[in-house]
Design brief:
five-stranded mixed sheet; 5 helices; 5 strands; 45% strand
Length: 186
């Protein structure tokens, strides 16, 4: 019974953290700044990623994805979506895992879309990352060795925490189009 309460509390906490969307300008600006910081960190670890940032139809950067779990786990994060290197909106990431896992961690994540169809699938909220599409850990030269699968490529940048994980789950995303058309954002 105590274990069930702990699991339920953990799940409620994970989902509560993920439900606060970045709505006002200050929050979007902060999110965009953190995304650019993570992008720079990724490029420092693997300069060959610059070719993907420049050639992909679009990409989404999640500067901080928080993940925690004990048997049942979850993750959430907010990100910034770019099409042809132009900011077009924000995204929300939610993940549920089931299996052997314990601990917590934070990481940055970038998803590259090879073509317009892949990006449109994401923008239409029909995109999901499952076990069949794995993420590549960012290190020197990783971008040169990794190939697109289903027109998508995912990289993660570990930040902090420790988590033992042998679970199965999926990431789901919600895209929110940018409706602010201020000239200063372009």
């Amino acid at each position: 019974m105590k274990l069930q309460k702990s699991i339920i509390t953990l799940l409620v906490l994970c989902f509560t953290l993920g439900t606060y969307a970045q709505k006002d300008m200050k929050e979007k600006k902060d999110l965009k700044e953190r995304a650019m910081e993570v992008k720079q960190q990724m490029l420092e670890k693997d300069p060959s990623l610059s070719a993907l940032f420049n050639s992909s139809t679009g990409y989404v950067i999640f500067p901080a994805v928080g993940e925690a779990g004990f048997i049942i786990g979850g993750a959430s994060g907010n990100g910034v979506v770019y099409e042809n290197n132009m900011f077009i909106g924000t995204a929300d990431l939610k993940q549920i895992d089931v299996g052997l896992q314990a601990g917590g961690k934070t990481y940055g994540e970038v998803i590259f879309f090879k073509n317009q169809d892949a990006l449109d699938t994401f923008k239409n909220n029909k995109f999901e990352l499952s076990a069949e599409l794995s993420a590549t850990l960012i290190n020197e030269g990783a971008a040169k060795k990794t190939k697109f699968k289903n027109d998508v490529l995912v990289f993660v940048l570990p930040k902090k925490g420790l988590m033992a994980d042998a679970s199965v789950g999926a990431q789901r995303f919600t895209f929110e189009k940018n409706t602010d058309t201020r000239v200063s954002d372009f």
